Amino acid sequence: MAVKFEELNRDGSVKKNTKGFKWLIVGVAALIIAANSFTIVPAGSTGVVLTLGKVSETSYQEGFHLKVPFIQQVEDMSNKIQVYETPASAVSKDLQTVSSTIAVNYRLVSDKSPEMYKNVGVDYQTVLITPVVQECMKSVTAKYTAEQLITERASVGEEVKSALDIKLNNYGIYIEKFNIVNFDFSAEFNNAIEAKQVAEQNLLKTKTEQEQAIVIANAEAEKKVISAEAQAKAILAEAQAQADANKLLEESLSEKVIAYEQIQKWNGVMPKVTSSDSGLLIDVNLDDISGTSSATQNGEQ
Length: 301
Fold this sequence. Notes:
Blueprint: E1 6-8, E2 14-16, H1 19-35, E3 38-41, E4 45-51, E5 54-60, E6 63-66, E7 72-78, E8 82-91, E9 97-108, H2 113-119, H3 124-141, H4 146-151, H5 153-168, E10 173-184, H6 187-265, E11 273-275, E12 281-283, H7 286-300
Antiparallel strand pairs: 1-2, 3-6, 4-5, 4-7, 8-9, 9-10, 11-12
Helix pairs in contact: 3-5
């Protein structure tokens, strides 16, 4: 329904209607007050409550909250993991200039958000994190030689992270992860490293060739030992066979010699001892037997 702002007076002049205008002003003011009577804290953030500019001890978690209009103000402090990447310059233990790129993943603890806002503000990355990161990077780098920074990068990163935790945890800033993206050295140092690697590779190649030559020599020596052992066994077997043959020959000749000697010593007389059917030995005179046999043959004739 439209509101009439003008009416006619009795004399025909235009009469202004201020009643509707007043209600309009009241409505607009009510909307402004209502809009300032609540706040919505986004996810992953903490609402720091300011009462007439003073930081309150209580804070709002994510979600919808009421506040006193025009008196209270809510500042959002992110508690999400944030990434801070920056170049860093330092000097190694062997006085080599080291340029590096580092990345820090950090987050602000919710309970520490009001204190951080009160003491540092919302730009705590510039005020706190940046100088502390540079300081820790320089102090840790100075403990390692340039070569160790390359070969022990993981250890260097862990040590820098521990140093950052010690300095920043009290402020409510926790380091989730610290990465050394890359190291960069002077051209002279890079050339020296390359020359050293080439020398080490050549040394390793020479050592490998020597080890292979030793293995081959050992194999050849082992073959010769095996061959010599086999030859010695063959000679020993041959000698044993010859000895066995000689022994058999000797035994055979001995029997023949004994038989020959017995024949040479025989007087032509047959043995006078024989065995009977009962197994008794009987001394028989062969000459008598021969005579008896002859007489018997003559009588029969």
